[in-house]
Write a structure and sequence with these properties.
Chain lengths: 373, 373, 373, 373
C-alpha cells in the first residue's frame, strides 16, 4: 500500500470538501495511487473520532500537532479558520510535509509572508485551495486566450457577488468586525484575483472604493452595533501585463448566490463566464459571416479535460465539489514533481498583497502601486 | 464493522458512478454507516483487479457469480450492458441481496417482467438507477406541485435531446440496430417517463411518431448500412391522472448535450426546468402585482435538501455525479425499511411498458392504451 | 401626388397597426412613394371621424362599402373581426382593389375558399397579415436553411403559448364558444403554420390532441358555463417535404406572453428562435473546434435586411409593430409586380385547411391526410 | 388644423427617428393633435427636398435658418452633428421655438452652458433626446425603486458596451481624434448617466481610468495614425444621494451591440436590466418562501404604460425606435405645460459636467468632485 498518507486538520465545510476529494481522487482519475486517509484532527477527541468515522479516516486526534508528528502523514490539509493557517502550515512544512491550505493564507500580511518563507525553505509543495481556477471551463478560457482565439486581451471586468450579508436585519456577527478583515475585499476579492492571476498574471496598480450598505446591524441583545468593514468593494486596476481591469465584489448583493462573472475583451473576440453557470462559457469571435456572428454558449464536455474523468458525455455538468477533486489531483502532480495547475504560496502571497494595496488605496483615496511597499 | 457490504458488477461509466457514490455517501451525508466496498466483478480477473484498486474495492473477480455467493455482500450494483441486467439482478435477488440496477431494466419486456417478479418474491429492495429524479430541484418541483404552488396541473411538455447520433458521417454502430431497441424511445424516453412518474404518475394512452433522420450510415469497411431504428420520437400522451402531455426525444439534435426540458402548466402558474442547467428551476405564479409577474429563476440552495449535505452555500452547484450519491443515500433508506425517493422494479416495469406501447402506436398508426396489453 | 390610395376598414389593434405601417413605410424605407391615407371606415360615422383624425386619414365613413366605391382607393386593409373578412375582401377584390387582410382568412373553410377564388379571379394582390414571417431574424433563419448552414433539416418543433386564457377565474367570454373556432388551434396554430410554410412548405398529415384545462368558466351573472373549445392543442405532423414536426399551442400557459418557439434540427446544425426575444436567433453548427462548439446567439443587425432601414446599429432591437411596416413594404412590392415575401390567399387557404384537418384528427382520433378532403 | 408645427434640421439616423416619431405620435397615443410636419432643413436644397418627400414634410430648405424664421414652426428637432447643436438650438430658442435636441448637448462644456442659459432665458421647452430613459421598463424600474420594492438602494453598476470600434484593422476615422471628444466617455457614458440621473439623481465625485485598446489605427493611405482618445472608460463614482456606483463604457467590446446593463442593489432586493433585451427586467426580492426566491424576469406588458399605446398584448416587444415616439409624446406634454419624463437642458448640462470631471480625474489620477469647478 503505497498511496500518500493524508492528514486533515479541520472538518468544517472545506474540511469535508478535502475529505471528499481525498476519497474520490483515485476513483475519478484512475491514474494515481489511492491516498490513505491516515489521521484527522479536530478541536477535541470526540468530535475528531466522529468525523474520522464519517469521512473515512483511520485515526483521529484532538491535537493537531499529532499529525505533524505522525511519520505516516505525507501531506496535510489545513482547513481551519484563517487565523490558524500560518501556525499549522508552517509547522507542517517544517516537519517535511506537503501542505494544502485553504484560502486566504492569513488575515495578516506578515503571517502570509512567514508562510511563504517556510514553504520556500522546505522545498515541499505548499498550495492554496483556490478551487475556482480548477474549473475545466476556466482552463478552456485559458486555452482560448493562450491560443489567440480572441486576439490580444485589452480589458477585463470581474465581479464576485453573493447575498449572505444582504439582509440588514440579520444579526451583527464576526464578519462585520474589523478584526475579520476588510470585508468584501478579502472575503471575495481573492477569488477574482486568483482567476486574474491564472489567466493574465499579477496586479500592478489599484484604486478602490468601498461601501457599507448598512452602517449598523442589530444585536441579539437588542440595540445595534456599528459595522466595521465594507460589504462592497469596487476596484480599478492595471495588471503587470498592461491589461486594465475592473474588479467588483459585493457580499450584500441580493439574488446573487455564487456569481463570479468574467468579461474578457480582446482584439478579435470576447469571452464571458459566470460561476453560477459554471459549466458554460460564452465566446464571441470576429470571424466568419457577419450575419452569423454571436456569443457562442459552450457547454462543458469531455473534450474539456479533465471533465472526461468525471463524465463521458457532454453537457451533464460538474458540481462545485468536483473542483476540489481536480485540485487534489493537481496537488498529487505537484508532489510527484510534475507541472501543476495550482496557486502556490509565493503567488498566493502576491494575491494577498494586492488586497492590502486595495485597502490602502481606499484609505488614502489614491492609486497605489504594488511596487510601493 | 457494521457498514453494508457492497458488490459491484460492471465498471463502465455507470459502474464508476456507483463506486463514487458508495465511496462518498457516508462522508456527504454523515448519517449513515460507511459502506464496505467488498467485491467487484468484471469480465476478467485482470480488469477486475485493476478496477478494484482504482475504485477502492477490497476484492475482485472475473466471475460475477462470486458476488452472488459472497455472504459478505449485502447489496449488488448491476451496471452491466442492459441485456445482462435480468440474469444478474434475478440471481442477486434470489440469493437474498438487495439490488441497485441501472436503467432500463431490460431490452425485452418479458425480462423486465421476470425481474419484477423476482423482486416481489424476494422481499428485498430492487431499485432502478433513475438518477435525474434525485436532483434536489426536481424534488423542489414536486414540493411546489404537491403544495399547490401552481394550482392544478393541466399540461406538461417534456423533451430529451442530445447530439451523439447527430452526425450522419459517424459510422454505423450497434445503437442503430433494431436489436438494440427502438432508438430514441428506449434510449431517452425512459428518463422523461421517470420524471413524469415521480411528479404525476403513470401513462394511460399514447400515440407516437418516429423518424430516421438518416436512412443509412457509413460502414468502416466502405459503403453504408440501413439504419434500423429511430433517432427521433415524438409522443402525444395522456396520464392516468388525466394530464395531457407531449414527450419528445431526439438523439440527433445538434447542440443539445444533456437537455431534459420540462414545461409544466397549472391553473395558477407554470414551472420550467432544463437538465443542462440542473441547478435552476423557473417558477411563474399568477400572484402579486401584475406589473411584477414573471418567471423566477430559482438557484439550488441548501434549503433544497439534500443540497445542504453537499454545500452549505447557495448557487454553487451540484454536478451530475452528485445525483448518484443522493440515489445511493435513498437506497440505504429503503434498505433500512424507510420510505425512499426511488423507482423500484414494479414502477420501473410500468415505465418500460409505456415505451413498448409507444412503439406499437407508431407501428399501428393509432392511439394505444396501456390497459390494452 | 402619385402614392397609392389607401382605405382602412376597422380600427381595433390591427387597424391601428396597419395605419401606423401605412404612415411610416415611406419614411422607413425611403424607396417607395408615400401612400395617401384616403379613407377609413368604422361601424359608425362618429367613431370613423375620430379615428381618421387620430390615424391621419383624409376622410371617414360609417359605411365600409364607401371605400369599395371610392375610385381613389387602390388598396384596402381589412382588419375587422374574422367573420367579416370574406364579405369585405371579396367586395374589394371584385371592385379591383388590392387587399391586405388580417389572419385568419375566415372562421369557415368555405368562406376562405371563396376569398381565394375571388383573389384568383381578380388578378389583384390579396395578402394575409402574417406578420411574424416578416421578422428579419426569420428571414435570416430562412437564409441559413436555404444556404445549407445546418445541412438537411429533419425535424422541427414549434410552440406558441400565451396566458390570456390561463386564469380559470376569468369570466366566460366568446373565445370559449364553439362558434369562435376550435380554440388554440385557430387562435394560435395559424402563426406557427405560417412560419413552417415560409421555411419548409405545407403540411401533409396530422394527428392532434386537444385539451380543456378548465371544463367550465364563471359567468358574470353567477354560476358557470361549460367551455366549448380547447385552449391547448398538440399536434404531430409531417410536412410535404418529408420533415417531421411537432406543433404545440397553449393559450392558457401561465407566464408565456408571446412565445413562438422554434427548434429546427438539421444534419449539420440546429437553429432556435423565440418570438419573446424576437431580435435573437441561436445557431449551432457542427464546425470548427469541437471544444468551441455551442449555440451562437445572433442579435438582429443592419446586415439582417431590412433591419438596416429602421436602425443603422446592431443590437438595438426592432419591435412587434415594426414587422407590420415591413409587411406593408412587401405588399407594395407585390403591388408593383415584384416578388414579395408574403402569404397570399392561395397559400393562406392551405394553412387554414391544415387547421381543419387537425381538428378532424382529434375528433376522429386518427392521423388525417391533407389530401383526404 | 391646430397641431403643432414641426421643423427638422438634419436627416441622418436621428433625424429619421425624429421624423418617424412626429409621424406616429398621434396615431400611437390617440390623445394629442397630429403634429404638422412643416419644414425640413438639410445641407442643400436637393437633399432637403428629397428627404422632405420621404419623411412627409410639407416644405424643405437648404438653409436651416429658414426654419428659425418660419412663423409656422413651433418646435424644432435638432439632429445635426454635435458641433452644430449649440448654434441651432440657441437660435431656435431665441426665436421662441421649443427645441428637441439630440444628445450630447455639445462637445465643449462652454457651448452646453450657453445652450442652458438660452433655454433658461427663453422659457421654452428645451429637451435632450435621451431616449433610453423612455423605455417603459426603465419607468417600471423607477416605479419599483420609488415604491420601495427593493428597499434602500446602496450600490449600482452600469455598463455600456458596443463593438463598432473593436476591430483594430478598421481605418482611423474622426471618432479616434481628440477633437471628437474623450472617446467612450462622451460617446457612451452620457447614456448611463442619463439613466442614473432619472433613477437616482446627479453625480458628486468620480475617479476614472481610461484605456486605448489600440495605440494606432491604419490609414487608408497606408501606414497608421496614433489614436488620440480612449475607447474604454471605467469610473468609480458616488452620487449626490450617497449611492456608490461603477460606470463602465467600452466601444471596442466585441460581441456587445447595444448593451446597457444595469445592476441595482437595495436593502431588500435587486433589479437587473440590459438594453439588448430592452423588453425585460429582472427583479429579486427577499420575500416569500426562501426556497422559491429568485430573479423574476418581467416581460414588457400593457400594464407598463405606455407600452399599452403600442400593443395591447404583453410580451410582444417594443423596438428601439418606439422609444423616440414616447419621447416625442413627453415633449408634447412639456410643451402643454404638463409634467414630463424628459431631461431638459439644465439637467443635461450637469450630465455633461460629470463627463468632463471624469476626464479630469483620469488626467490628474485622482478623485474629482463635481463641486470643484
Amino acid at each position: 500500500m503505497t498511496g500518500l498518507g493524508v492528514g486533515l486538520i479541520g472538518t468544517g465545510y472545506m474540511g469535508k470538501c478535502h475529505a471528499l476529494a481525498w476519497n474520490s481522487v483515485a476513483s475519478v482519475f484512475g491514474d494515481v495511487e489511492r491516498p490513505r486517509l491516515v489521521a484527522l484532527a479536530e478541536v477535541n477527541a470526540d468530535l475528531a473520532a466522529r468525523k474520522a468515522a464519517e469521512l473515512g479516516f483511520a485515526t483521529s486526534t484532538g491535537n493537531w500537532r499529532d499529525l505533524i508528528d505522525n511519520a505516516d502523514v505525507d501531506v496535510i490539509s489545513v482547513t481551519t479558520p484563517n487565523a490558524f493557517h500560518a501556525e499549522m502550515a508552517i509547522a507542517a512544512l517544517e516537519a517535511g510535509k506537503h501542505v494544502w491550505c485553504e484560502k486566504p493564507m492569513a488575515p495578516l500580511l506578515a503571517d502570509a509572508e512567514r508562510m511563504q518563507a517556510a514553504a520556500a525553505r522546505s522545498g515541499k509543495v505548499a498550495a492554496i485551495g483556490y478551487n475556482y481556477i480548477q474549473n475545466p471551463m476556466i482552463r478552456q478560457i485559458k486555452a482560448l486566450i493562450d491560443g489567440g482565439s480572441i486576439g490580444t486581451v485589452n480589458h477585463v471586468r470581474i465581479e464576485m457577488d453573493e447575498d449572505f450579508m444582504a439582509d440588514p436585519q440579520s444579526l451583527f456577527y464576526w464578519k462585520s468586525e474589523a478584526s475579520s478583515g476588510y470585508g468584501a475585499l478579502d472575503d471575495f476579492a481573492v477569488h477574482p484575483l486568483s482567476l486574474l492571476f491564472i489567466l493574465f498574471g499579477h496586479v500592478e496598480t489599484v484604486i478602490a472604493d468601498m461601501v457599507k450598505p448598512y452602517a449598523e446591524r442589530p444585536l441579539a441583545s437588542g440595540g445595534s452595533r456599528a459595522v466595521e468593514n465594507h460589504d462592497i468593494a469596487s476596484v480599478l486596476l492595471r495588471l503587470e501585463c498592461g491589461i486594465s481591469s475592473v474588479l467588483m465584489a459585493n457580499r450584500s448583493a441580493w439574488g446573487r448566490k455564487g456569481r463570479i462573472a468574467l468579461q474578457i475583451f480582446g482584439s478579435t473576440g470576447s469571452i464571458l463566464f459566470d460561476q453560477e453557470r459554471m459549466n458554460e462559457i460564452e465566446l464571441y469571435q470576429n470571424a466568419g459571416e457577419k450575419a452569423e456572428q454571436g456569443f457562442r454558449r459552450i457547454l462543458a464536455a469531455p473534450i474539456h479535460a479533465p471533465y472526461d474523468r468525471f463524465i463521458p458525455a457532454p453537457g451533464h455538468g460538474l458540481g462545485f465539489n468536483d473542483l476540489k477533486i481536480i485540485e487534489c489531483r493537481e496537488l498529487l502532480s505537484a508532489i510527484r514533481g510534475e507541472r501543476a495547475h495550482l496557486i502556490h504560496f509565493d503567488d498566493g502571497l502576491r494575491i494577498e498583497r494586492s488586497i492590502h494595496a486595495m485597502a490602502r488605496s481606499f484609505a488614502e483615496r489614491r492609486w497605489v502601486s504594488l511596487l510601493e511597499s
